[in-house]
Amino acid sequence: MADNKWGRRIIYQIYPRSFKDSNGDGIGDLNGISEKLDYLKDLGVDAIWLSPVYQSPMHDFGYDISDYYDIDPIFGNLSDFDSLVKKAHSKGIKMLMDFVPNHTSSEHPWFKESKSSKNNSKRDWYIWKPPRKNRTTPNNWLSQFGGSAWELDTKTGEYYLHTFDVSQPDLNWRNPQVVEEIFNVMRYWIKRGVDGFRVDVAYYLFKDPFFRDEPHNPAYTDIHIPYDSLLHIYTVALPETLNMLKKLNNIVNESDDMFMVCEIYTFLHEIINLYKIVNHQSFAPFNFSFISLPWNAGEQKKFIDEFDELVGHDYFPTYVLGNHDQSRIATKLGEDSSRLAALLQLTLRGIPFIYYGEELGMKDVEIPEEKVKDPMAVNMKSYNFGRDPERTPMQWDGSKFGGFSNVEPWLPLEQEFKERNVASEEEDKKSFINLYKSVIKLRKTRKSLQDGKFIPLDFKNPNILGFLRQEEDEKTLVLANFSEEKQIVELPKGSWKTVLSTKMDVENRKEQNQVNLGSTEGIILV
After folding, report:
1. Which of 72, 263, 374, 521 is catalytic?
2. Which of 29, 200, 308, 374 is catalytic?
3. On the chain, which terminus has fewer CB atoms closer than 10 Å, C or N?
4. Model-level pTM greater than 0.85?
5. What is the C-alpha to C-alpha distance for residues 477 and 459, in angstroms, rounded to an integer?
6. Among this protein's residues, is 419 annotated catalytic?
């Protein structure tokens, strides 16, 4: 069996702008995160992943990097970063950085040089093409942020490629100098003490060398964003990209006990394929099945059973309920179902990723038009699409700005923040946060929940998802009722007691041969 350190760890995603403001400018920062490390330790977090904190003009909030080797002043400086890493490590918390290798900011010195003339030595660091004969864009490729993926530079008369915002030109991964430089960036941060990376849009690095038009998507309807009108067979998941992810992981493995996770939205067999290509315990692709599949016992069970079996015991599955690009789980599913989701996420085999505020049951916040910040929302107004609602400030207490800042924050707080915050929930035995802490504590104290095999169970009931985790002779049974009606479930042989319910109203209840599950209730039995 592979070394299981990362398979046991719970990773917590921090969106730094929104976590804690330490200097009163309404924007979260590195020192704010340092202040809250004890909170994270107390919650049971083993590693944090920071959304980008590099220097950036912030058109896309840090995903447009103008200097890979420095920290943006709104978050602090390199010594604040070093101090955060050191403090985190002293508390046994690992540190993952967000890493953005597909594109830079158009304000990056590399791009400024590249743009300066056709024969500049950095010209080939980005993807430039002359217009077609009829003076139009080089091909039909689209930007995820709306419109063509090509932008004309009038000075040199050529177009550059931007898969995302026009301010985010794509790097040319077919240029060995670019590859070498990106490897250098990774080594630089590893030397500064980081324990690995989350790789942004990992599937986009290489583009078709022949720049062929992409075919029309026959399933497209105009309720989707325009980007989905094409099938992205020439810009996404090319074989060269998959092989490059293995090389990036090799850089990570130059040091011990490191980890790399890749952002990939795809289907099951592609995820499994990637595990096999990279072939190392220090690597996992994200699995967004909780987010993307219908929320019912049948669909989720089918995916989880197959996923666990295909990943196999050499690698670790990952489970995600939300992130900075996805609507919050409590908004999507409601409170009871998101408690159920948390219970499953923290008891399944593999690595759970908690997005800040999920442990409070935080919800999306409706952002008035004049306060919208997300470039995607600004570019595509008519699609009512934006990522601000899930990026609002962390709710620490009931004071004026939720304990996040002493001035008005960069995005508005949730209206219910006075009831839903760390201070008030810590007092309430049945709160979201206490559910998280209790499940995490069980996860950390039971061998079967840390290293145990996953054994699917079939209760012949379409509303029930259940499984065993077993390590040697220790067994833990997890049952989840996805319906709003009570369900009676026959228990496997043995003498079972319920040690936890998502309702937080049961402790050590001895069970007979069967158990009653309340509406949308999940339980853990030992």
Report:
1. 263
2. 200
3. N
4. yes
5. 13
6. no
